[in-house]
Amino acid sequence: MNTPHHPRPHRLERSARRIFYCSIGHKLDDLRVDQMTGIIRRGMRWTARGSAKPICPRASRA
């Protein structure tokens, strides 16, 4: 299968608990990609206070 690798952000909100998870890839160099660090920053902001916009359209359906 010849498909590109993509980050897989997920979020879960139950009661007063928020969980953000993102599989960043296979190499530490993936953290040097601005879009990847942006996803992680927004996910951490959402988890901490809920002020960030959804990470991706699917994330808002969790």
Overall mean pLDDT: 73
Number of helices: 1
Sheet with the most strands: spatial strand order? 1-2
Order of helices and strands: EEH
General description of the model:
The chain has 62 residues and is an alpha+beta fold. It has a domain at 27-62. It is built from 1 helix and 2 strands, in the order ββα. It has a two-stranded antiparallel ribbon. The longest helix has 16 residues, at 34-49. The protein is elongated, with a radius of gyration of 12 Å.
Question: Can you describe this structure in just a few lines?
Answer:
The longest helix has 16 residues.
List its salient traits.
two-stranded antiparallel ribbon; alpha+beta; elongated; 62 residues; 23% strand
Secondary structure layout:
Layout: E1 8-14, E2 17-23, H1 34-49
Antiparallel strand pairs: 1-2
